[in-house]
Amino acid sequence: MLKTLFTTSKEKLLSTPTPENIVLGTVPYLNVQPMIWAINTGIVGKNVSIIPQVPRQLAAELYLGHYDTAIVPVFEYFRRPDHYSYINGPVIATRDAVLSVMLYSSEPLPKLHTVYLDASSLTSVHLFQVLAAEGGYNLEFIDTSTKPVPRPLPPGTGWVVIGDPAIAELSQHPCQVDLGSEWKKLTGLPFVFAAWLVPKQVKDKPLTRLLNDALLAGLTNLDQVANETAGQFNVSPDFALRYFSENIQYHLGDEELAGWKEFARLCYKHRLIEKVPDFREYR
């Protein structure tokens, strides 16, 4: 069952003024499809380009000005808070198990000494470092861009992996830990993985309306989104629908924002960022 129910009509959405010449950056993952389906199908927006890229690279390209806005890892906001504002509305978040941000290993976490970190990730690898620090684990971290993950994972070794590659590895390892669930156990709050950030040089574009209308259309037609997009990601429509409905939270509510701010506080506590940023909404 959907966490939040929406009702709308195609006629209402089509009457929405449509922006022109907007470039959106997105991720090549299943989780973002309800956000962009209506744009891809022409229900919402005209002359809108959507360019996919893995999260870490997407953040770098947004900073360089390649997009008007992009659904980037929230850790990017912590690194350059003076450069961005966030769009109030659509996010990639979870209120418990997320299913696509995982620690896989051959042994339980307390027995690990080395963890490989997904090179495409920016937020989730820092989330794991926060969780490890809060749990008192002393681990060596290895960036998978410098050294490949050994397969099978040897004793004492774990692997943090995100997105559709994480889904593909479900039930393939003796031990698996869902980082969304671990965050909920630690804080009692939702976790926000990615948000639409807007560089400071982008002004007076109707990005908030565009993205909120697109998400509304996607969630209203979630069965159709699942049916039309699941095959691109090698999952069944039933799996996609459950994932959209049960694992991903798409709205930045008060609790989600509190979770995002708590993540910033803990990143600062463990010296992963220089300061706790102010949170500025794009207007």
Topology:
Elements: H1 10-14, E1 22-26, H2 33-40, E2 48-52, H3 55-63, E3 69-73, H4 75-79, E4 84-94, E5 101-105, E6 114-117, H5 123-135, E7 140-143, E8 157-162, H6 163-168, E9 175-178, H7 179-187, E10 191-199, H8 207-220, H9 222-229, H10 237-247, E11 249-251, H11 254-269
Parallel strand pairs: 1-2, 1-3, 6-7, 6-8
Antiparallel strand pairs: 3-10, 4-10, 4-11, 5-8, 5-9
What labels describe this entry?
five-stranded mixed sheet, 11 strands, 283 residues, alpha/beta, six-stranded mixed sheet, 11 helices, disordered N terminus
Quick recap:
This protein is of the alpha/beta class. It has helices at residues 10-14, 33-40, 55-63, 75-79, 123-135, 163-168, 179-187, 207-220, 222-229, 237-247, 254-269; strands at residues 22-26, 48-52, 69-73, 84-94, 101-105, 114-117, 140-143, 157-162, 175-178, 191-199, 249-251. It contains eleven helices and eleven strands.
